Amino acid sequence: MKSKITLKELAKLLNVSVSTVSKALHDSPEISPKTSERVKELASLHNYRPNPVAVNLKKSKTGTIGVVIPNISNSFFARVLSGMEAEAQKHDQQIITYISNESIEREKQICDMLTSGLVDGVLVAVSEETQKKQDYDHLFALLDYEIPVVIYDRINLGLPADKIGVDDEKSFYDATKYFRAKGIEKIGLASAIHHVGIGQLRIKGYERALQNESLALMATSTKATDLKRKIKELITQKKVEALLCTDFESAIMANRVAYEEKINIPEDLKLIGYISKDIAEFLTPSLSYIEQHPKELGINAVEILNNRLDGRYESGKFEEKIISTTLVHLESTRF
Amino acid sequence: MKSKITLKELAKLLNVSVSTVSKALHDSPEISPKTSERVKELASLHNYRPNPVAVNLKKSKTGTIGVVIPNISNSFFARVLSGMEAEAQKHDQQIITYISNESIEREKQICDMLTSGLVDGVLVAVSEETQKKQDYDHLFALLDYEIPVVIYDRINLGLPADKIGVDDEKSFYDATKYFRAKGIEKIGLASAIHHVGIGQLRIKGYERALQNESLALMATSTKATDLKRKIKELITQKKVEALLCTDFESAIMANRVAYEEKINIPEDLKLIGYISKDIAEFLTPSLSYIEQHPKELGINAVEILNNRLDGRYESGKFEEKIISTTLVHLESTRF
DNA sequence: CTGAAAGCGCTTACAG
DNA sequence: CTGAAAGCGCTTACAG
To answer: Given CB atoms, is A278 within the 8 Å cutoff of chain B?
Structure first.
């Protein structure tokens, strides 16, 4: 039971002052080698660890990064978090996790708490509800308190903050062009997130690639039953030969509808989804997907925050970094 | 730009002492109503928030809980985390997340950091590697430093700590009995986690329900290709009519093999898997699963930790709580 | 009812 | 080379 020893106790045991002990442990050149050694020996004997709370108070920082995640069950965000954790670890920073559950109410509570100075900076993916209402006051509050904010993933909103995202538009532009090049005429799109920024960008990429907007064949709804009906229509009546899905829900629904309607993938219908690798690979058939490199996104978010904290960016100017997605072909796009 | 104001500054503006301000803000009866009101008014005008680092130093605590997660991509753990976050929130505690990636090395690093007093307590699901090596020194170190530990989910190990888990054995016992009651003779089991505690418990439940051990038909391997081969053998040669899968990997593999071998689920093969609701529902066909109530598990973990921290448990005696699983029938067990 | 003082555990400029 | 002092921002027992 080696309950934690303090500098003061160490000093007493060694018959030196607290300052001497502190300096010795920090390899200050002010301290004589002998003293330094004595101090270190006793410190390691007692397994001395400086109290991080005291150190942080002294240094006026927290050593901590707040991360706001809209939905942790979404494995994309889980992977982003793991990237953040890995990068923070390198800088001896701790990641405090907050889950907004796509609720603006919760997001506000979180930001309000954070203004008290619990963290040195915050990484946030704005909730769907917040995007719909376009109410960003709570984020501005953070900025007001001089707490740096990095917006990640859902960056398509007008906030004066550093951002790190993914080339959502280009990904679907490229995917659509891919089907075109393969000679497919009827290319459809399904979306349960057409109302939020990233959904809109993906749709925009699709439409831009089609050139002629009248070619667009879209099934969009946030309600599962409606979405299902619309996808079914697209597949069975409009006879689309390829379908791009902007999100997990629509991808899985498309797969489901094909299964129920006995439509063979990829023979009768090619499918591409914006879903995670670990799910894509295990579906039957496996589903071609757009890899967003979530871990890199998380790493970058922390890097950008630290650049900001360490003053490596000009204040008033904001960084915006885009990570390239990759289209990974699995069985569902086999020709 | 309302950069944070301190007690001292507030006191100066009001021409009173720091102690008076502090007491007023805490509704101390020592302070006169008038003073109290003046103080509060100015405080709210300046949006005063006590510096949490200073408060924590004073109170000798951190207000923080460390959570060690073996694998965040596993949506079970993601959901556990969300339960923990929700419960911590209620007590104004922050969740610091650490991801061990099933590595004992990383787990040791994390525990070592935590002994310095970054958190008031830790919630840990021990990594697979740690279980294999049965090396728990780093966890004992935490205990040595009087940092309470709650083991969650993977509790089948001899550690003197509070625990919260799931009735792994019973779940598979019940599932096996269920198939028995339906008149199924050949009930198989597939596992990629037969070497770790929870896997062993699930297998034990299965074997106990079979009574006659010679009836056991098992496909176990941590290597995907081997597991696939063995499952294929179970399905095509041993002709099992029902298969219990102890984990995501084996469940998805079984589904995959059935798909490739053109074996119909549920007509020719019933399937039950230990996988998450959000995946189970979307597979084709949807996969009957054992619901582990991860969010409740997370909530309970934090509750237990707080009981321990607040001295509501006798020291030296440990709490062990088991959450009941639920077998949820979807398409893959339709008779 | 108000305030001075001590202290939580550190770090660091300054004096000797 | 060592130590006393001030201070990070609070809280709280104690004195007046």
So the answer is: yes
- Grouping H, G, I as helix, E, B as strand and the rest as coil, residue B289 is strand
User: CA-CA-CA-CA torsion for A8, A13, A19, A20, nearest 10 degrees?
Assistant: -160
CATH tag for B63-165+294-322 (out of 3.40.50.11540, 1.10.940.10, 3.40.190.10, 3.40.50.2300): 3.40.50.2300
The CATH T-level fold of domain A168-292+327-333 is Rossmann fold (3.40.50)
Q: Which nucleotides of D are covered by protein (CB under 7 A)?
A: 1-5, 7-14
Distance CA B262, CA B285 (A): 13
A168 has a chain B CB within 8 A of its CB: no
Q: With contact defined as beta carbons under 8 Å apart, do B67 and B97 qualify? A: yes
Rounded CA-CA distance B335/B328 in Å is 14
Q: Does A4 touch chain B (CB under 8 A)?
A: yes
Strand C lies under 7 A from the Cβ of residue B51: no
Contact B284 A256 (CB under 8 A): yes
**By the CB < 8 Å criterion, does A326 face chain B?**
no
The architecture of the domain spanning A62-165+294-323 is 3-Layer(aba) Sandwich (3.40)
Walk along chain A (335 residues) and give the pLDDT tens digit of each residue: 456 899 999 998 999 999 999 999 998 888 889 899 999 999 999 989 999 999 999 999 999 999 999 999 889 999 999 999 999 999 999 999 999 999 999 999 999 999 999 999 999 999 999 998 999 999 999 998 889 999 999 998 888 999 999 999 999 999 999 999 999 999 999 999 998 889 999 999 999 999 877 788 999 999 999 999 999 999 999 999 999 999 999 999 999 899 889 999 999 999 999 998 888 988 888 999 999 999 999 999 999 999 999 999 998 899 999 999 999 999 999 98
Q: Closest chain B residue to A85 measured between Cα atoms?
A: B98
Best interface-test mutation with A: which of B8, B47, B53 has the largest number of A CBs within 10 A?
Answer: B53
Beta strands in B62-136 (DSSP E): 64-69, 94-99, 121-124
Phi, psi (5° rounding) for residue A218? -120, 140
Q: Strands A288-291, A326-328: parallel, antiparallel or unpaired by DSSP? A: antiparallel
User: Which residues in chain B touch residue A103, judged by CB atoms under 8 angstroms apart?
Assistant: none
Residue A242 in contact with residue A188, Cβ under 8 Å? yes
Closest C-alpha among B144, B152, B135, B94 to residue B115: B144
Contact between chains at B144 and A81 (C-beta distance less than 8 A): no
Range(s) of chain B covered by CATH 3.40.50.2300: 63-165+294-322, 168-291+327-333
Among chain A residues, the shortest Cα distance to B4 is held by A145
**Would you call A116 and B51 a contact, using CB atoms and an 8 Å cutoff?**
yes
Beta strand ranges found along A32-161 (DSSP E): 64-69, 94-99, 121-124, 149-152
Nearest to A249 by CA among A320, A196, A319, A176: A196
SS3 A167: coil
- B81, B138 in Cβ contact below 8 A? no
| Nearest residue, CB atoms, B144 vs list A2, A99, A279 | A2
Q: Which two tokens stand for residue A240?
A: 């689309």
User: How far lies B63's CA from each of A53, B54, B59, B91, B149, in Å?
Assistant: 10, 12, 10, 9, 15
Instruction: Count the neighbouring beta carbons within 10 Å of the beta carbon of residue B199.
Output: 24
